[in-house]
Design goal:
- This protein is α+β, with helices and mostly antiparallel strands.
- It has two domains: 2-84, Double Stranded RNA Binding Domain, CATH 3.30.160; 103-161, no CATH class.
- Helix content is 49%, strand content 17%.
- It contains six helices and five strands; from the N terminus they run βαββββααααα.
- It has helices at residues 7-12, 66-81, 86-102, 105-120, 124-134, 148-161, and strands spanning 2-3, 20-24, 30-34, 40-47, 53-60.
- The protein has a five-stranded mixed sheet, covered by helices on one side.
- α1 links the parallel β1 (2-3) and β2 (20-24).
- The chain is elongated and about 70 Å long.
- The N and C termini lie far apart (71 Å).
Length: 162
């Protein structure tokens, strides 16, 4: 379906049995996807440098107005014209955040130790729980910052409390 995406035209849309898309008549690549549940989201559709069709999710229609989504689409379109694959950049940024998260004590517990401990040890869940409660103050620190000095300091504080 092709129509000018405006606040009024979006209000008139009703969900169907299957998802459908409304492509904006004015701005190339700007579209609204309507789910059977009634959820609606704006997308920017483009082709990367290899000619592959890609989609970049801009946001939900209940949190963005059509004008705001259109402005974001224009900015994304300019980046694509400059040779950037915006979807790949978004994917790389997510991977960097995930890697940074996994390099903290909490990330190590979530991604590495907890899955191993729960599958290999009977006391795995209890051990993870103890680590979380005893070292709560270290959860967001990078693993490189947790050294013998930090652990000995924690240990001496625990001995004083007894």
């Amino acid at each position: 379906m092709r129509a000018k995406l405006s606040a009024r035209s979006i209000q008139t849309l009703r969900p169907g049995d299957k998802p459908f898309e409304v492509v904006d008549a004015d701005l190339k690549g700007f579209l609204l996807r309507v789910q059977p549940s009634g959820a609606m989201a704006y997308y920017f559709s483009y082709r990367n440098e290899h000619g592959r069709r890609k989609r970049y999710r801009i946001g939900n229609s209940d949190s963005l107005s059509p004008a705001q989504a259109r402005d974001r689409t224009i900015l994304l379109s300019a980046r694509v014209v400059a040779g950037e694959d915006v979807q790949e950049k978004k994917k790389r940024e997510r991977q960097i955040v995930k890697l940074a998260m996994s390099q903290t004590l909490e990330g190590f517990l979530i991604h590495n130790y907890e899955p191993w401990a729960t599958s290999q040890r009977k006391s795995g869940p209890a051990t993870v729980k103890r680590i979380r409660s005893n070292f709560d103050h270290l959860m967001h620190r990078p693993l490189n910052d947790i050294n013998l000095w930090v652990i000995e300091k924690w240990r001496s504080e625990q001995l004083i409390c007894i």
